């Protein structure tokens, strides 16, 4: 059974760095084809993909946010970490992690429940 | 980046109606398109991948079609559980993008 769970602060101040952790089970990020992405959704708005890390430790980032994002993995702990620097109120959103389970096909078959991050002083 | 445009943004329909949602890509994405359903306060759920492949466990009233730049999601007979927001997502490249969403409301 595949599960993913996001964790991190519910509130961050402007200019701070956000660190989110995705803890997963039911698959291994060392298996060929497996990837984990971060996706966010501001309240009442559409989904926005942020970053992806694959089984081979290749990393991909949103063009518009790449200077602020870092994604990493700890295969032994079954965790993927996202850091986002210089947080702003417009970054207030529910942040999801999601799995890609098919080689060369980056759609998301399993999602975490999401964690709401509010950026406010 | 490839832009994904969904239409309509809101759709009002009744139980039993046939519903069609369109997603257009700003450039060809072959068949690298997925559809998701999202209900308020919940994570998105995968419905369709590779434009027309039905995810396991998804009711057969959902179907997808299209290739290149134009795609459709069809619900053959709308059920009460189907009132939700639907998103398309392209995965032709590693700069993944979603459409703006289509909210299916009760008429």
From TrEMBL, chain B:
SMART domains the record matches: IG, IGv
InterPro entries xref list: Ig-like_dom (IPR007110), Ig-like_dom_sf (IPR036179), Ig-like_fold (IPR013783), Ig_sub (IPR003599), Ig_V-set (IPR013106), IgV_Light_Chain (IPR050150)
Subcellular location: Cell membrane; Secreted
A GO cellular component annotation in the UniProt record: extracellular region
Matches recorded under CDD domains: IgV_L_kappa
Keywords: Adaptive immunity, Cell membrane, Immunity, Immunoglobulin, Immunoglobulin domain, Membrane, Secreted
Species name: Homo sapiens (Human)
The Ig-like domain, residue ranges: 2-99
Example GO biological process: adaptive immune response
Main location: membrane
Protein name as catalogued: IGH + IGL c32_light_IGKV1-5_IGKJ4
A Pfam match: V-set
Gene3D superfamilies, per the entry: Immunoglobulins
Record bears the keyword Cell membrane: yes
